[in-house]
Amino acid sequence: MFDRCITITGTPGFAKLAADSQGRNRGPSKALAAALDPEGIHVCQMLMPHNDIEWRAMWLVKVLGSMEPVTLWMDNSFEAFTRWTVKHETEEGAA
Questions:
Q1: Distance, CA of 74 to CA of 82 (rounded, Å)
Q2: What distance in Å separates the CA atoms of residue 74 and residue 28, rounded to the nearest whole number?
Q3: Based on the number of CB atoms within 10 Å of its own CB, is 74 exposed (0-12), middle (13-18) or buried (19 or more)?
Q4: CB 5 within 8 A of CB 34
Q5: pLDDT given for residue 92 in this prediction
Q6: pLDDT at position 71, please?
Q7: 95, 19, 8, 92: which is closest to 47 by C-alpha?
Q8: For 69-84, how does the pLDDT look when each residue is reduced to its tens digit (9 = 90+)?
Q9: At residue 95, does pLDDT exceed 90?
Q10: Torsion-angle region of residue 38: left (phi > 0), alpha (psi -120 to 50) or beta?
Q11: Which of 23-46 are b and which e, b meaning 16 or more Cβ less than 10 Å from the residue's Cβ?
């Protein structure tokens, strides 16, 4: 059975994850970080362990002035990802 939860974070949490991604292989550009919607909700579309030391996540990111998300990959420590994201249960049949 599929997990009926999605992992999300708001812009403040995403900014913390972006800071944690510094020095890792993948993360947002400074231009994208500046374009984040301050009220945005960002969705983790895919998550996988990377080199057994961190998560590699594919994000759908809400930018200011657009309803179309920007897709990016970001690497984060296990601890930062857990701290700055929330699992949100979806409605029955929505997944």
A1: 14
A2: 7
A3: buried
A4: no
A5: 63
A6: 97
A7: 8
A8: 999 999 999 999 999 9
A9: no
A10: alpha
A11: eeeebbeeeeeebbbeebbbebee
pTM over 0.85: yes
Mean pLDDT is lowest, of 4-13, 75-84, 86-95, for 86-95
- Domain residue limits, the chain: 5-89
- Strand 54-61's sheet: what is its strand order? 70-76, 54-61, 41-50, 5-10, 86-89
Nearest to 43 by CA among 74, 15, 10: 10
Residue type present at position 4: R
